[in-house]
């Protein structure tokens, strides 16, 4: 069965996946790009990067994915819904290369971009969005692309099969915290932690078979 | 120069060092002993335990320590100050084997226990408590023994030289969080993360030389 997967979601030691305030100039607020430096150093991001543990795990982001679901806060800065020409942060050729479902309370018609990405806009609960995305993925997996609030909502709803978090050794103190509302998540997942020579720790949550929601 | 050190402070993925509510029956609240199972499996705790990475790091708890500082919440359950006969959780022969300073707003006379532990009770700010403990330690290091609130206060005051946290792969959701108020701690410490085959991740915070408060 196809899976719902989260990849490369970087968090601080205190669990924040973004800082604050978020704006067009600072999409991650006071966190800047500190949560993502580990990824920039990999071949996944840059062909001159490293090809070790961080890269192997980062590369899974695109493997076997047929559609993505993302939240409104990932698609644009606060207020993007008021700009009819806003088509995301990623230019004319976004890196998703698949149907990409943006959750927003103010949906608009789909936008077809270059390179295989089409943005669809949905105002539906997580389970319904996932059903729609699975159909669009045609048998492949669906990536829950973030931000943290969306990932949290999908995990809390029991909809995520695999979640890869990357813990970066900084303490952000404020922002959007991945853990809120996820008490006892270990009951549903096998959790593996592996520290990388780069300094980050990869946390992989694999849904336990008996708890599978798609099985 | 002698150091102020924190050892074996176990936290959940979401940073809680204890659950809630804390009581005489459940000193760690709903966390139970889940934060400490890694330690019970080591030779540090039980002579039939493991002697690997977890043990090597756990053993540092007692090495070179001449005094401990602990908070009121570590010394006893809520309300212990009303019991004149309360002498801690640890029986007649506590494991500290050194002068041990309990921070409380209701100090009482010192209590000499078996095995080298004497409990002293102080109602002073962190820096003053540490100065007193360093004197008592006679050139050895001082352990900041917890709980989480006390560790947090000492770190926030810039008084801790080395901090060893142990991250356990559970999400507690509530309790006392180690990270609150410690934004940008990475500016003052080199942080090393190493995952153990047991499933926990050891986080070692070593104060950067330029920021040393005792140097």
Describe this structure in words.
The structure is a homodimer of 215-residue chains. Chain A has helices at 37-40, 53-59, 72-75, 126-137, 148-156; strands at 4-12, 16-18, 65-71, 99-103, 111-112, 118-122, 141-144, 162-168, 176-177, 189-195, 201-207. By secondary structure, the first copy, chain A, is α/β, with parallel strands linked by helices. The first copy, chain A, has a single domain, classed as 3-Layer(aba) Sandwich (Dihydrofolate Reductase, subunit A), CATH 3.40.430.10. A nine-stranded mixed beta sheet of chain A has the order 5-6-4-3-7-1-8-11-10, sandwiched between helices. Chain A is globular. The mean pLDDT of chain A is 95.
Topology record:
The structure is a homodimer of 215-residue chains.
Chain A: E1 4-12, E2 16-18, H1 37-40, H2 53-59, E3 65-71, H3 72-75, E4 99-103, E5 111-112, E6 118-122, H4 126-137, E7 141-144, H5 148-156, E8 162-168, E9 176-177, E10 189-195, E11 201-207
Parallel strand pairs in A: 1-7, 1-8, 3-4, 3-7, 4-6
Antiparallel strand pairs in A: 2-9, 5-6, 8-11, 10-11
């Amino acid at each position: 069965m196809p899976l719902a997967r989260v990849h490369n979601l970087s968090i601080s030691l205190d669990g924040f996946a973004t800082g604050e305030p978020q704006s067009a100039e600072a999409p991650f607020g006071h966190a800047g790009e500190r949560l993502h430096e580990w990824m920039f150093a990999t071949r996944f991001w840059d062909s001159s990067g490293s090809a070790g543990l961080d890269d192997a795990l980062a590369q899974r982001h695109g493997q076997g994915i047929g559609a993505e679901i993302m939240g409104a806060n990932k698609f644009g800065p606060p207020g993007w819904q008021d700009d009819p020409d806003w088509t995301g942060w990623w230019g004319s050729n976004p890196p998703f290369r698949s149907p990409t479902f943006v959750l927003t309370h103010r949906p608009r018609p789909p936008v077809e971009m270059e390179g295989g990405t089409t943005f669809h806009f949905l105002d539906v609960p997580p389970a319904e969005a996932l059903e729609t995305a699975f159909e669009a993925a045609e048998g492949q997996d669906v990536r829950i692309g973030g931000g943290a609030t969306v990932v949290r909502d999908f995990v809390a709803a029991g909809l995520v099969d695999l979640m890869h978090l990357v813990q970066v050794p900084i303490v952000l103190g404020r922002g959007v915290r991945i853990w809120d509302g996820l008490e006892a998540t270990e009951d549903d997942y096998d959790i593996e932690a592996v520290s990388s020579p780069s300094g980050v720790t990869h946390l992989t949550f694999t849904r336990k078979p008996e708890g599978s929601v798609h099985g």
